[in-house]
Amino acid sequence: MYNYIENNELYINQYIISITYILKISEYLSRLNLDKKTIVTSVVAIIVFSAVGYFLFSDVEDAQVDVLSIDGVEPTEANVLSGAYPIQRSLIICTLGEPTGNIKCFIDWITSDEGQEIVSEEFVPLPESERTTYDAPSSDGVRTINVGGSTSIQATMMMLAEEYKEKFGINVSVSGGGSGVGASNTVKGQFDIGMCSRDLNSTELEQGLVPTSIGKDGVAVIVNGAGVSRLTLEQLSRIYSGEITNWKDVGGADQTIAVIARDDASGTRECFDKSMGQDWVMKDDVVKYNSSGGVIGAVRIANGSIGYISIGQLKAI
């Protein structure tokens, strides 16, 4: 049973039973002046009944998860790097002036094959032609490097910091705050390195920030039982805003669309949302997961569903 429960949500075919709904059921039953034992028994019975129905009438192993092309472009690393794929953004780190000393050593290591292997676990890494070699940090140089900014890059930077410390004994302190904070605090000297999940703007460049690309973020759209192999960016935005609710409206099956997204704090979510347009708003009744694995699992067992994940996670399908 635990294979189908993640982030406190249970997906039963195209029906989604979440903790929110369970609480609503419990609240309703409590109004009937039932004792706690009866309420708990009733809620458990609902979950078990749904689960039994799912196992009797569906086959998760046979579920087909399809990856969609957007605006006719497939979500491949090559298409992200070329700029052809529409749901993507730049990932950079920046320094005030050209990096020197042990800070440069760390940056060169991030953009080397070793660092890019870690970056590729979540993002699209640099092409081999843009990768660097690196020198070991100097014993006379700084032993602590302060890095901060984009929360989208933060988790990956923490993994890079941990590996670099284990390899060279250099402490890399990593904090969030957002891309704007990463740029401004680097200008102020509070960060040695700023993290930005976007390109630097003209003002930031005029202030002396020097960007270094560490990869790109791309978001792939996955579906189950949709009956389509592609969507336009406009169709995708209208599905997630709630304007399109059935796959037949985009040339697919006569099937209600079950919409699945990443959680509000997700960098993948941020990349997706910004690609939808400035005034676009996601509809309220979207079920959210805090990992790409959760989205993949939910789409796999929910017929008619749609979700999105980091392109780096397509290998998990």
Helix content: 25-40%
Average pLDDT: 86
* Total number of strands: 13
Overall SS class: alpha/beta
Radius of gyration: 23 Å
Q: Any idea what the shape is?
A: elongated
The helix/strand series, from N terminus to C terminus, equals EEEHHEHEHHEHEHEHEEHEHEHE
Q: What are the low-pLDDT stretches, counting only 5+ consecutive residues below 50?
A: 1-21, 48-60
**Secondary-structure arrangement, i.e. CATH architecture of the domain at 89-216:** 3-Layer(aba) Sandwich
Q: How many H/I helical runs?
A: 11
Main sheet record: 10 strands, mixed
Question: How far apart lie the N and C ends?
Answer: 20 Å
CATH topology type of the domain at 89-216 = D-Maltodextrin-Binding Protein, domain 2
Portion in beta strands: 15-25%
CATH class of the domain at 89-216: Alpha Beta
Structure, described:
It is a single chain. With 317 residues, the protein is an alpha/beta fold. Among the domains are: 1-58, no CATH class; 89-216, D-Maltodextrin-Binding Protein, domain 2, CATH 3.40.190.210. It has 11 helices and 13 strands. Strands 4, 5, 6, 7, 8, 9, 10, 11, 12 and 13 form a 10-stranded mixed sheet that branches. Helix 1 (19-30) packs across helix 2. The longest helix is centred in the first third of the chain and has 22 residues, at 36-57. The chain starts with a strand and ends in a 7-residue tail after the last strand. The model is unreliable at 1-21 and 48-60 (pLDDT under 50).
